[in-house]
Design brief:
2 copies of one chain form a homodimer. Chain A is α/β, with parallel strands linked by helices. Chain A has 2 domains: 234 residues, Rossmann fold, CATH 3.40.50.450; 149 residues, 3-Layer(aba) Sandwich (Rossmann fold), CATH 3.40.50.460. The first copy, chain A, has 13 helices and 15 strands. In chain A, the strands form 4 sheets. The first copy, chain A, has a 7-stranded mixed sheet, sandwiched between helices. In chain A, a hairpin with a 4-residue loop joins strand 14 and strand 15. The longest helix of chain A is centred in the middle third of the chain and has 20 residues. The first copy, chain A, is elongated. The first copy, chain A, starts with a strand and ends with a strand. At the A-B interface, helix 6, helix 10, strand 9, helix 11 and strand 12 of A face helix 6, helix 10, strand 9, helix 11 and strand 12 of B.
């Protein structure tokens, strides 16, 4: 008797390479003789509404696989949906396993971060309770790099490369205008609790760029007064000062800097309390305290979506990790997450491993304090040595008419009733 | 007797390709037998302080020329400095021409936008008054594409390519999260009076992307109420609505949208009136009126500095236009700007021409009303056909250690007194 089917879903915030993992799942499943690969639309949330596709309707050849590897965001759609505890609501689990049986699913792969690994853990636990035969495997993904056990997460390297490149370009731009005037640039980077991405901005430092002058991670308490003093001090030595801050920096009392304007009763045109961004707030402080020109730059969703500048290491690892999930299940593993083990830094080598998902779920890996300098305003050489290999190499986008081509699902051409592409 | 020297400067806002024009000036000057090419530091402002370099100290070989073509911002530094009228202050002109004589300058090239062409005009006029022999030639540059006579300006194509790519990636990212919830994204683009760049976001529309739903240029009066109604209407048809707005949109009465919160007495934490960005303001309006999730995305200085995604057409044209300035001067022209003439759209072909700078200076070219739809919320096919050729082709960055390498001047290693590189 042949093998059954694989079900794969994407969950949580998108990255530039989450679809590369999807491509890896699909390709390895086909190579290992599974019958079909179904994709959940919008993760477990859409799946509960019986929204799924047959991947083969969309990924028809090797070119499609290469396009998928270069397409940002979640091809299948994503969700933020937390499964209840099993004892709280068994009905949801019964519904899911009923659908799994209906679709003859043997392998369930979920690509995501901490919350998604929690989903894998719960589904696996439920399968133990009921003796269900499906294998549940987690595929790590997050730009934040805050998953435990794995050396790093797919998605981090490409975001780090985009952030380092953009920081370099913003610094270059600011220097052009620096004659006889002072200028302070504050760049805000994603990562509420973990400063991996913020620290990666310092990779811009090199022979052709001084890099940022100050880098503030959320791991260290932030003082607005100390920040202002540090900027003043830097401005005595140079005309352009660039500070990079995490969106999640907060005071020793635990108050987020981005909440500050709200605290001082700033209201918008409608009387709402306004959540001014961290960089925007600090830029205003510097302008008031020092009087020089300032500019706040937010990289926004671009830092997780800029597939046009993804790292080759990252795209390839995401693909391999996706494939490794199917391999792990095929070899009998369940309730596990695939992790990346670093074998060496230079030359960089890595392999995949498999870990019990119970050891991973809901843990959060932050930057070790010893990888941040004593003053708490820069990262160490050890930090940079850790990140540097992950931004190497370039996956050329497939340019069509001057723009990167993506593989996307045109849901209007899809017949949900019969689960068939209409085209 | 051999030829004298060339002096070149950069002025106004930087672009991703302004250094490609600088490379073109340098290379053509060397090929045409000029002795030296001096570069003004920080435009005419730095030059008045005798800040200049010998380009040969920094651009030593063909690799440096290629690096310079890929380096964003102004290699020499730039300024915003308006020369007085000749009758107002002759002393400034006497000082400039004294320095030109001292450095044996035969050709003066200024790379910039409208204001810089005004500088060329004034210096040329002064040379007519005094019989000075130097040739003054303008080299067009601006991401805003608002210079008259020339078909388009170097710098525009690369910014347009970056904006279209980023718009596509932001849309892709937003679609991933669209299950059972509405989401409105508002992207803000540079260009205070001319909507060329804002309109270029619509190039993202194609087989794999629906593009933005609404595009607002500063050429058409903007109504916040009409905007809100249009977003509501779109949200009835789809879950994710993306609007792209120029930073310069204003009401029929001429009030900038970004001034709105100030007008309604929004104050920041320090009691300052706050200039909230256009997208941030509109995002707040939509959140209040419709209640759905919204996000404001500003591309900030990245749109003029993202050399890693520059257009090949643009980099090559910038280089050629730079070379054409020296050629024009060498053939006896002065008081002129080099322009780009479009010969055909498809296949795209262009050539350079030379125009009297008096016809160009201080003019501003905006998007013709007939290239914007009647409702004033999208650009026409004619607009897109005009822009599309300019974003074609890709100049691969020279990647070193995973990041684009730039050619930059390390001013600390420069001896200003003897105008010599110390290294």
């Amino acid at each position: 008797m042949g093998k059954g089917n694989v079900l794969v879903g994407q969950s949580g915030g998108p990255t530039a390479v989450i679809n590369s993992s999807l491509a890896g799942v699909f390709k390895t499943a086909m190579e290992r003789g599974y019958n079909k690969v179904y994709g959940m639309r919008y993760g477990i949330q859409g799946f509960l509404d019986e929204q799924y596709i047959d991947m083969a309707d969309y990924v028809k050849n090797e070119l499609d696989i290469e396009l998928l590897k270069r397409t940002p965001s979640a091809f299948l759609g994503t969700c933020r949906y937390k499964l209840p505890e099993i004892h709280e609501d068994r009905a949801v689990y019964e519904r899911i396993f009923e659908l799994l049986d209906k679709l003859d699913i043997e392998v369930f792969v979920y690509i995501g971060g901490n919350d998604s690994m929690d989903t894998i853990r719960k589904l696996f636990d439920y399968s133990l309770l009921t003796g269900a035969k499906q294998k549940f495997v987690g595929c790590p993904k997050t730009i934040d790099n805050d998953l435990a056990i794995t050396d790093h997460t797919p998605g981090f390297g490409s975001a780090a490369k985009y952030i380092a490149t953009s920081t370099k370009e913003v610094i270059c731009d600011a220097l052009g205008f620096s004659y006889k005037k002072k200028n302070v640039i504050i760049i805000e980077i994603m990562g509420r609790n973990a400063g991996w991405l913020t620290g990666a901005s310092a990779l811009s430092k090199g022979e052709d760029c001084e890099g940022p002058d100050l880098v503030y991670l959320p791991e260290v308490p932030f003082s607005v007064e100390q920040f202002t003093d540090s900027v003043k001090e830097k401005l005595e030595q140079k005309d352009v000062v660039v500070a990079v801050v995490s969106e999640g920096i907060r005071t020793a009392e635990g108050k987020y800097i981005c909440e500050f304007t709200a605290g001082s009763e700033t209201k918008d045109a409608f009387g709402h309390i306004q959540m001014t961004g961290t960089a925007a707030y600090l830029s205003e402080v510097i302008h008031r305290e020092i009087g020089c020109k300032t500019r706040a730059v937010e990289l926004s969703t671009l830092q997780r979506a800029a597939a046009h500048l993804s790292s080759k290491i990252d795209v390839d690892e995401a693909f391999n990790v996706g494939g490794a999930t199917v391999k792990a299940a095929d070899e009998g593993n369940s309730g596990v997450m695939v992790v990346i083990d670093r074998i060496s830094d230079d030359p960089y080598m890595s392999s995949t491993g498999v870990y019990d998902v119970h050891r991973i779920a809901n843990g959060e890996k932050v930057v070790p304090r010893e990888w941040i300098n004593e003053a708490g305003d820069y990262v160490s050489e050890e930090f940079l040595d850790y990140v540097r290999p992950l931004i190497q190499g370039h996956y050329s986008p497939m340019m069509v008419a001057g723009l990167p081509r993506h593989l996307t699902m045109d849901s209007k051409n899809y017949d949900w009733i019969n689960n068939k592409n209409i085209q």
